[in-house]
Design goal:
This protein has about 425 residues and is an alpha+beta fold. It contains four helices and 27 strands. Helix 2 packs antiparallel against helix 3, helix 2 runs parallel beside helix 4 and helix 3 packs antiparallel against helix 4.
């Protein structure tokens, strides 16, 4: 045993001395390895002559020595290496991070020639347990800030950030830490919403974590879609929308009065004149605690369908009737003043009074009905009232001349009028 150790150290000294004589063995550099992997070191062209001594070293530490068929192994490598005496290849298994470094092969031939070759190995710990930690409270556009921090284990050689599968770069509102493992956004904007990815990498492995950010904003750009003018008796829907995150809730008012409608659509099953007015839609965001409103004016058109008269036609008819009545009244006054109409008896007075009263009632009913079914009712009502007052003034003239009220029908021309014969 003593002889073996003496031989071992003698050969080691010779190999160290021999490395200064030249490097004649070419050993390809293996790829980077992960912890727990295996690696093979092998020279491209082993010596063709017989070999007296073969040695593999890790830095200055011998791994295995083979001399005259006697193999000596460093106890630190027991159980995790293999050696091929034909190809001089050394296999290391269950690699450790500490196995990273320079490996050297030394061969001494039977002719006393010493050949050497070197290569290197880099062992990395696999990347694992990568995760992102982001803000827990809701983020509001223009008010909040967001900090995203990454964590992970293993050998980390680079850190890359992406947003929605596109590289993320620093900007006026996005700042990265010195080690590139966290980022800070202030203030957040709606464009910052999306999926953030952080990838840890090394030459043998990588790990990616994802985090979604939602930036709350709005409501804004509230709009109401629907008809402005509709006919009587039709179905009408007004649709309200708003730009908001999360989606806004809605409330409707009609002529400044709250309604029970809390959806985005206000529906009238069958319109009537009472549905004309202003419809206000208010959108509300429960996260931003903001609201915005929009108004829509709806007019229910009278006589818009079913072949009925239009508003203009009704106004024209009423005006014509009032003018005709006024003309008749004026004609009668003229005839009385010129004494072309004799005084009438009491029975005829009463009949004329009843006829005039009936005519006034019909005119008033027509005016009131039009006022309740047309938005122009106020204007027409004022016009009608002036004409009625004029008619009443004419009635007073009749009374002063012995006639209690104006007649219902037009009076025949003077040349065809005949007074009743007194009995």
């Amino acid at each position: 045993m003593m002889v073996s150790y003496r031989l071992y150290w003698t050969l080691w000294i010779l190999s160290c001395f021999g490395q200064y004589l030249g490097q004649d063995l070419q050993i390809p550099e293996p790829p980077n390895k992960a912890e727990g992997d295996s690696v093979v070191f092998a020279p491209d062209s082993p010596p063709s002559t017989s070999i007296f001594i073969t040695q593999w070293f890790f830095a200055a530490t011998p791994i295995i020595t083979v001399a005259h068929g006697v193999t000596t192994v460093n106890p630190a490598y027991e159980g995790r290496f293999r050696f091929d005496s034909n190809t001089l290849a050394l296999t290391l298994q269950n690699l450790r991070l500490s196995d990273s470094g320079i490996y050297r092969l030394t061969v001494t031939t039977s002719a006393g020639e010493t050949l050497t070759g070197e290569t290197s190995l880099q062992v990395f710990e696999n990347v694992s347990n990568v995760r992102l930690i982001g803000p827990e409270e809701p983020l509001i556009e223009g008010e909040s800030s967001a900090n995203i921090t990454s964590e992970g284990t293993g050998t980390i050689t680079s850190v890359q950030w992406m947003k929605d599968n596109s590289p993320l770069s620093p900007s006026n509102s996005i700042i990265f830490s010195a080690d590139n493992r966290s980022l800070f956004i202030s203030p957040v904007q709606r464009s910052d919403s999306g999926e953030y990815q952080c990838t840890y990498t090394n030459p043998v492995s990588s790990g990616t974590a994802k985090l979604s950010l939602i930036i709350n904003y709005g409501p804004e750009d509230v709009s109401i879609k629907g008809l402005d003018v509709v006919d009587l008796g039709v179905r009408v829907s007004l649709s309200c929308s708003a730009n908001s995150e999360p989606s806004a809730s809605f409330r409707w008012k009609f002529n400044e009065t709250d309604t029970s409608v809390t959806t985005d659509t206000f529906t009238i099953d069958k319109t009537d004149v009472t549905h004309s007015g202003d419809y206000d839609c208010t959108a509300w965001n429960s996260v931003t605690n903001r609201n915005a409103s929009q108004r829509h004016a709806l007019l229910v058109k009278v006589g818009g369908g079913g072949g009925g008269l239009t508003t203009g036609a009704i106004v024209g008819i009423v005006i014509v009737v009032l003018v005709a009545v006024s003309g008749i009244c004026g004609l009668i006054v003229y005839l009385i003043k010129t004494k072309k109409i004799p005084k009438i008896n009491q029975q005829q007075k009463e009949q004329a009074s009843e006829a005039a009263q009936t005519t006034q009632e019909h005119i008033y009913e027509g005016i009131l009905e039009f006022q309740t079914t047309s938005r122009g009712g106020a204007i027409l009502g004022n016009m009608s009232e002036r004409n009625v007052n004029q008619a009443e003034n004419n009635d007073n003239i009749y009374v002063n001349h012995g006639v209690s009220n104006r007649p219902r029908a037009a009076t025949p021309p003077p040349d065809t009028f005949r007074a009743p014969v007194r009995k």
